[in-house]
């Protein structure tokens, strides 16, 4: 895989504990981030806590609450094994063995794997678009300016391409920009404009990438198309929310009406 930053999010340097002599601020922030992410899917767990790199009594109690929720001894310390359990959703999303028999099937399978592991962004030091999921999609970058919808889409395509020993950069350049991918699609004859798609909807295929057009050469959001039903496409998108925002909070499964939105489609046919 080309986009393999996620591996750096799967480990800490040493055991971390309250006022520990081997504590590292970055490692503690990783732990605090995963405790907060766990609380999103388990709201009764009481694991949400500040993300400041200080392993104090609040972080210790949040760790104990996580251990209690998972049926473990409540030590309040984070070993390598415990951290592996905290960040297991990320490992599952990126390393789950795949079974798809075609590239398009693999794209959908990978996207579903990520979705079910609940990728969310966090707010850290006042910055949205932060946390381990965002850094994994954005090659270590995070913070408010780093809209991550294209980083997510390319991570999915990269993972699927790697499963068949291909490189997604043969399809499009590695980028975080919807405009770069849209322009590449035009130059390669792989981007179909929304006007054509409304006349020829059969050109929309599962595994393709949609690009939401703001103006003719300006695209503001992207995601993976999972299927087309009548006037509707179903999608899996990063950095979105219930309103379909291009700067939301999570990976979500959505429906969009391609006849009412300016949705262009980038075909992944060269890898299929």
Automatic annotation (TrEMBL):
Specify the Peptidoglycan binding-like domain's residue ranges: 25-86
- Alphabetized SUPFAM superfamilies for the sequence: PGBD-like
Record-linked Gene3D superfamilies: PGBD-like superfamily/PGBD
Classify the source by domain of life. Answer: Bacteria
Matching entries from InterPro entries are given as: Peptidoglycan-bd-like, PGBD-like_sf, PGBDSf
What is the protein name given in its UniProt record?
Peptidoglycan-binding protein
